[in-house]
Every structure is written in C-alpha cells, then in structure tokens.
C-alpha cells in the first residue's frame, strides 16, 4: 500500500521523517510555501516517489469552490481503487489532495502542536470541533470541514502527549481513545536512523555561545493571525528580554516559519537568529541547552533543554 504524507509545517515534516518507512512507496504533499525551500533536499533523499507543492486558494472564488470538495471526494471514491494510507495534517482539504483522499483506505492524523491539547479562539480546533454557530451549520451541510473527527473515519491519531489531551479536552480524548498512537517526537528524533535523515534535510550549525547564559525567544505568527498588534507584542517581549540582557544573557530568536520577514529586528536587542526552517526540536541534536525560553504557546517548550520557561499572556 502506498503512503501519502500531507504536511503544512516543519513540525509536521519532523513527524514524517520519523514515521516514514524508507522501503515503501512514499508520496509527499507540501501544503505551505514555507516548506518549498526544502524541496530539493527532500527529493535528494530518494525516499519520496513524488513531491507535490500546493497552496491554499486566496481568492473568494477559489475558497468558495472548496465547498464542493467533500462531495467530489465522495463521488470519486465510488470509482477509484482504495490503495492509499494518507498521513495528514489537520488543515482541511484542497484541490491537489483530492485524489489521495478519494483513494484512501486509511487516514491517520498527525498532531498540530499545542492546538491539539487546548481550545482555539474560544472553540476546539477546526478538525476537532462540533458545529457551534450558524456558519458551522452551513459548512456541515457541505460536509466541511472534511477533516473533522466527528464525520471522518480516521484510522489513527499520532499525538505526543495524550495525557494533556485527556486533562484539557476529556470528551475528545474519550472519543479518540482507542485510535491514539503515542508518538514522542522529542525522543524519536534522537534515534540514530532518524537523526541522520533529519540532519541531511535540515543541516546543523553550532549556536553555542560558550561562557554566557542563553535565552531563546520562540515566536509565533500572532500578528499575521491578528491576535495582537506588533507594537504591543514587541513591548511584551522587551519587558522580559531587557532584564535578561542586563544580566548578561545571549538572546536567540527562533521565528515560526509562517511569520513574514523579521519584524523583531527593530526590537533594539542583538538577536542570534536560528533559521526558520530548522525545527526547534532538532536543536536537541546539537547538545545545546537554554537557560530561559520565552514564548506565547509552542510545543518546543516541552523539550528538556530549556530550563526556565516563560509564557507571555495575550488577552
């Protein structure tokens, strides 16, 4: 059975590199332009038969057409051979993943970081939520979102921390319980076979600043997602970072791949930037340790090589 891996972030990519069986027929769908820079390195590994680059439609017409995709998938499934196991991120379907879903005999969901274990914008994440508002009832009529645990038969759920899901969203945990696969990505990347492949894809540099304490600022696309304005966000970060600089800390910056440009250059502090396309978890392979980590929400904070963890609040 061929395997299709559909991803939308470097975090998902890390999951795939640890999950994949190199001796099977593997196909990869890159669902965000932030991943396109990895195309050549991924192709050169020889483990993927095909790699497809896609982007979600931006026009209202393109977005409107997506209303019909669940229906098209149902129709296609009547005529095609079900010979695919698709491992998918939670982002809903788009045109170029139409056939993989139509041919899917198994669907496995790869977790999407902290969003899997908490509420999101007042509701559960899109793929885990029951329709709650009028617009949701309209979407349900069209079968949207397609990737929804209450309507789609998902074979397995790959989660790093099921106990946190049980604590925060017990009803969803009970619903998924028998289908959950515990997959600790922070342990998986340290396995020798996975480590070599990950280093081939992402490379590694030495970020260790010997003799100085180190703090890491892990940012998210909060401005891009309209959760906070840039000026307010920078003030929040500065309130934490300036005292650390005064105490002699080196400050490292790891931006989320979806963030646009480097908006933090105006912060007035020397920042040692770690490339966006290197998943933060991969730094474990370098033996680096940070004394302090600062973030809003990030799965990266679950690692053992950050000693003190500071979370900013956004109301």
Overview of the structural elements:
With 315 residues, this protein is an alpha/beta fold. It has 2 domains: 2-202, Rossmann fold, CATH 3.40.50; 214-311, Rossmann fold (3-Layer(aba) Sandwich), CATH 3.40.50.11110. The chain contains 11 helices and 12 strands. The protein has helices at 10-19, 39-44, 60-65, 69-76, 98-102, 134-141, 162-168, 170-176, 185-188, 192-202, 230-246, and strands spanning 2-7, 26-30, 50-53, 84-88, 104-110, 156-159, 180-182, 214-218, 250-254, 271-274, 290-295, 306-311. A 7-stranded parallel β-sheet has the order 3-2-1-4-5-6-7. A 5-stranded parallel β-sheet has the order 10-9-8-11-12, with helices on one face. Helix 2 (39-44) links the parallel strand 2 and strand 3 (50-53). The longest helix is centred in the C-terminal third of the chain and has 17 residues, at 230-246. The chain is globular and about 65 Å long.
